[in-house]
Amino acid sequence: MRQNLFSTAGAIIAALFTGFIDTARADGDPDRGRKAFLQCLSCHSARPDLHKTGPSLATVAGRKAATVEGFGRYSDALKASGLVWSDEKLDAWMLDPRGLVPGTSMNIPGIKSASDRRDIIAFLKAVKAVQSAERSPAPSNESGGSMMMGDRPMPDLEALGPERQVVSLTYCRGTYHVRTVAGQVQKIWEFNLRFKSDSSDKGPMTGKPVIIPKGMRGDRFFVIFAQPSEISPFIENRC
Questions:
Q1: Which of 28, 1, 204, 52 is nearest to 123 (CA)?
Q2: How many whole angstroms separate alpha carbon 13 and alpha carbon 126?
Q3: Strands 220-225 and 193-197
Q4: What is the signed CA dihedral for 70, 75, 77, 81, rounded to 10 degrees?
Q5: Of 152, 170, 187, 230, whose CA is between 20 and 30 Å from 84?
């Protein structure tokens, strides 16, 4: 029953998205835009419930700048700009963010391809149309909905197994020794280990950080805590 419900929801969203393509194609191609949006994914998502370094762009089309709910890292320059994200302003922003809003924290060289910019705008307008029609967050990958938006689901850090749950972290002469509940000890060069926090409902439990491998070579890691205040007390300087 649950699978059928998700499948039906996914089909409805796919139909809405496909129907919107015909109206948006004159200015850009939403399907091509979904692919072009991949270059934005390191900092943004197209899911209404997922902020990254930058805000979710699920409802950005036509919105006043610096007003996405739940995002608090806007630059003062953007908040004071008074911009409304029309097609023209979105195009100018993607081409040269600092040229449009001097002092912005949007630190990218810009998207030079005019066709990519048009297609991304068409995609964002299609995403907003879907959100407006549904009035609810995008469904999970089980229905294929969030993959239509181009985002991977955030892992549930609290649910990770004992091989990822950190019980101790010591530092000695440039090397971190990370011990897990499973009894494994990772010896990691200090340059290759980064500490992060995740206070969301997908984050780790308080006092129970987790270690996540990152990087192509398998030698870089994140240790993620529930709150920033946990980081320093957890690390023991001992050789």
A1: 28
A2: 11
A3: parallel
A4: -20
A5: 152
CATH of 28-132, one of 3.40.50.2300, 1.10.760.10, 3.30.43.10, 3.40.50.300: 1.10.760.10
Q: Which helix (H) or strand (E) holds 211?
A: strand 210-214
pTM for the model:
0.58
- CA-to-CA distance for 220 and 225, rounded, in angstroms? 17
Burial class of 75 by CB neighbour count within 10 A (0 to 12, 13 to 18, 19+): middle
Burial 118-145 (b: 16+ CB within 10 A, else e): bbbbbbbbbbbbbbeebeeebbeeebbb
At a CB cut-off of 8 Å and minimum separation 6, what does 50 contact? 56, 151, 154
| Measured distance CA(24)–CA(29) in Å, rounded | 7
C-alpha count within 13 angstroms, C-beta hemisphere, residue 74 = 19
122 phi, psi to nearest 5 deg:
-60, -40
**Domain extents in the chain:** 28-132, 164-235
State the pLDDT at residue 61. 95
CA neighbor of 32 nearest in space, from 122, 113, 145, 125: 122
The low-confidence residues of the chain, meaning pLDDT below 70, are 1-26, 133-154, 216-218
